[in-house]
Design a protein that fits this description.
The complex is a heterodimer of chains A (161) and B (66). Chain A has helices at 11-32, 69-85, 94-121, 125-159, and strands at residues 40-48, 59-67. With 161 residues, chain A is mainly α. The chains are: A mainly alpha (161), B mainly alpha (66).
């Protein structure tokens, strides 16, 4: 089937190769402040705002010191997740395209239902943590749901001949 | 919409896998069509009909609820 907007099938393996390690490292970054010291670099910032009462400084269109471990892992995760989510299946066809669309709609709904609940029940730094997770959840939800549906239809096949 | 794909397939004596391969779709697609869970596009319906040397109307038909 001709499809615009999807990556070739080989990108799926590359995606998993990026996604799995960056998920593990991402959890370490968020919960254990994992950093690689040699990644302390001067970075260009369009805007970097400190929190005034904590004595932070503000940079606009300038350089500042930052450890870029989390930036690299975040980008690895996003590229990996995009490749896994939007690479063609081995046998891409209209049924899979429909499953993909439905899963994307489903993931968007669930993502924002969760966000609405979090807006109601998380405050201050707790909400900041929710925002960090929310950057990634829509892709995660999509990947889980899409592959679950494909797995389920595949399983029902083994009974059918 | 209902279809007699399964019957046609039995007459021709081919598996879902073989049929899927012949017309270039996934096995899941054939399975879902046979179970009436998925309505194929016109292109796919025409391909299926061609594969069995029938017309689309011979394989697919409307139901009262359509």
């Amino acid at each position: 089937m001709k499809t615009k907007l999807l990556f070739p099938n080989q990108f799926k393996s590359i995606g998993w190769f990026l996604l799995v390690p960056s998920t593990i490292l991402g959890i370490l970054v968020i919960f254990y402040d994992f950093q690689l010291k040699f990644l302390d670099l001067n970075v260009f910032a369009i805007y970097s705002g400190g929190i005034d009462f904590l004595g932070g400084s503000t940079t606009i269109l300038g350089f500042e010191k930052n450890n870029i471990t989390d930036e690299i892992i975040g980008i690895m995760f996003l590229i990996g997740a995009l490749f896994v989510a939007f690479s063609k299946e081995k046998q891409e066809d209209e049924f899979i395209a429909k499953t993909r669309l439905e899963s994307l709609v489903w993931a968007t709904y669930i993502n924002y239902v969760i966000l609405i609940l979090c807006i109601l029940f998380f405050y201050n730094i707790g909400f900041l943590l929710v925002m960090i997770f929310n950057m990634f959840t829509i892709l995660i939800l999509f990947i889980i749901r899409f592959h679950y549906i494909l797995y389920k239809t595949n399983k029902s096949l083994s009974h059918e001949e | 919409m209902k279809n007699n794909l399964k019957v046609e397939r039995a007459i021709k004596n081919i598996t879902q896998e073989e049929l899927a391969k012949q017309i270039g779709v996934s096995r899941q697609a054939i399975n879902s069509i046979e179970l009436n869970k998925y309505v194929p596009s016109t292109v796919l319906a025409l391909k299926l009909a061609k594969c069995f040397n029938k017309t689309v109307n011979d394989i697919f038909s409307l139901e009262a609820s359509d």
